[in-house]
Amino acid sequence: MIYSQNWYAFYNSIHIETKKNVTIRFSATIKTENLVSNSQAALWIRIENKNAEIGYFDNMSNRPITSSEWTKISLSGNIDENFNYIFFGGLCNNYGNFHFKDFRLEVESNNGEFYNIDLNNLNYNLLENNANGWKQGIGSEPSKLIEEYSILAYKENKSLDSCLLISGREYPEPTDYSSRIYLLIRSLEKVSKKMIRNVQNSSIEELDFIPNLNINSIGNILIHITSVEFYYQRLTFENRLLDEKESRQWFSAIKMDENCRKQFKNYSIEYYLNEYRKVRKHTLDLFKSKEDTWLDLIPSNSQEDNYSCWLHVMEHQSYHLGQIVQLFKIKK
What we know:
Layout: E1 2-3, E2 7-14, E3 22-33, E4 40-49, E5 54-58, E6 71-79, E7 83-93, E8 96-108, E9 114-117, H1 126-129, E10 135-136, E11 145-146, E12 149-155, E13 162-168, H2 179-199, H3 204-208, H4 218-237, H5 244-255, H6 258-263, H7 269-288, H8 306-331
Parallel strand pairs: 1-11
Antiparallel strand pairs: 2-7, 2-10, 3-6, 3-8, 4-5, 4-7, 8-9, 8-13, 12-13
């Protein structure tokens, strides 16, 4: 399943046997580019003891990296015979380009010198398939695919060592759209992300919950939001109403009638978000072919212009998001 969030973390972990108190150091070099407001990069380290307590934690919250120049960072903590695992990695908050390289994990030896632990530095592709080694996340839950972030391993200046680039983007590329349409897209996507982040961890029980016969379930609301957007695609971009096949597929969801309640039960959140994302992706692709003047045209089956129609799609989704939030509160 694909998740939505405004931060990206990756990690590795290792267990080391020791019978005395020794120092462990984790370091890397970081730089950033094209940061939006409040964006930053950092390293992080978490030392867990055998009793499951946190022995040490540092995520550079008071000294994040925003520089466009390569900056070497080093974090250190102590481990002893109670040590179990160390988790360590990088952190990207908000959006922009975040570069990492030269990861090193060093452990103090009996003679006080430090030796390196192999971190499999070249295999950043492991972040994509969550194999052994580097993984997405912080090690406290299964790794996830995050839709706002992409990963690229690259060589810098013909170096043998790889650099890791994590690119975070909240909205589609502005160059893909004309100016007014892009502002509309940003507003549509802002509401969309709020909805996805509110529901993406929902259980089937939560999605099917109906407090009384006059209220629809969250699952019904999600498929309704998807169906209404599909309808407005046809109304505005194709200047027509739904055909017979499309009506059979979407009519009950648009109306949120009894058939909708019967049909959309026992589906996972992954199903609902996959259906929604397919429709939304098509919406974003369709907008790429239009100029700003198209927003002022009135479809033949509407009394409102295209701009007003898509404002309605956004307001409609926002309204139902409020219902979803209230249903979660009632369910608790």
